Amino acid sequence: MPIRLSSLISSADDLLALEVEELAGILLVHLNSYGDGGGNSVAQWGKINQHNFFNELDHLPEYPGRQPEVNLALMEAWSWLQGESLLVPSPAGWFHLSRRAKQLKSREDLAAYRKVSLLPKGQLHPLISTRVYPAFLRGEYDTAVFQAFREIEVGVRRAGGFADDLVGTKLMRDAFRPESKNPTAPPGPLTDLALPVSEQDGMSNLFAGAISLYKNPQSHRNVPTVAIDAAEVIVFASHLLRIIDRLTPAAIS
Fold first, then answer.
1. What is the side-by-side strand order in the sheet with 47-49?
2. Distance (Å, whole) CA 147 – CA 128
3. What is the mean pLDDT of each run of 10 residues along the chain (253 residues)?
């Protein structure tokens, strides 16, 4: 027997107060509980009939007096699952749970999945997607941020031809030193000379500030330990790496 929705969340008010993503987690746990065996008009051999699913809720309401509005909310959650490719349509109104969906058997599983989806791997710089993404998947957000900005430091050192002992903000200031009338202070090897001097200075500040704030998260107070914050910072690091790629001298790249 499938797990009843009302056993997962007993109050219609509580159910209707959920965000669509949260309700989708409840619905997915329920749908997963039908299993892959033979079944009835709702579930047969691993497939769920959408029409029959909601028709049964109308005839055997789990939330008497509130079922119509509950069903509307469940339809929104169903659409969300479709949009995430967790419910895949089959002919004649049937749906099957995707391979990923079958792994999401609890609200906690869906919450973990949603955190992963915050960081779109295909849009990240290759160094981030291969060396940083795994730590993010494990929930090691401070480590992932540290690794991302370590890649920036390594990338700047390599692109600028600097010694290994030059690190941190000093490395960034030397690499992105703006143009100057002082002949003893030539522009840095990664300075974009096509930009006005004020913007060259901004680029220097951007990289120096980023390294200062995020390179060693264990020693700073503003360490991103929440998935969405860490994802935003890692995407920022990916953007900085693409800037480094663009400014890397051809002989080094």
1. 43-44, 47-49, 94-97, 87-89
2. 8
3. 87 92 88 76 84 91 93 95 90 86 79 76 90 86 90 95 94 94 83 94 96 72 75 95 90 45
Report pLDDT for 21.
84
**87 phi/psi in degrees, rounded to 5:** -115, 125
Angle of CA points 251, 252, 253, to nearest 5°:
100
In a domain, 252, yes or no: no
On whether the CB atoms of residues 93 and 84 are closer than 8 A, the answer is no
Based on the domain organization, do 104 and 133 belong to the same domain? Answer: no
| Total Cβ atoms within 10 A of residue 223 | 19
- The CB density around residue 65, as the number of other CB atoms within 10 Å, is 9
C-alpha–C-alpha distance, residues 128 and 216, integer Å: 17
Q: What is the pLDDT of residue 12?
A: 94
pLDDT in tens, 24-51: 888 998 998 887 765 677 888 778 889 9
Asked if 126 and 221 sit in the same domain, the reply is yes
Convert 78-90 to b/e letters by CB count within 10 Å (16 or more is b).
bebbeebebbeee
- Taking the C-alpha atoms of residue 45 and residue 10, their distance in angstroms, rounded to an integer, is 28
Same domain? For 31 and 49 the reply is: yes
Report residue 148 CA to chain centroid gap: 15
CA–CA dist 78, 205 (Å, integer): 47
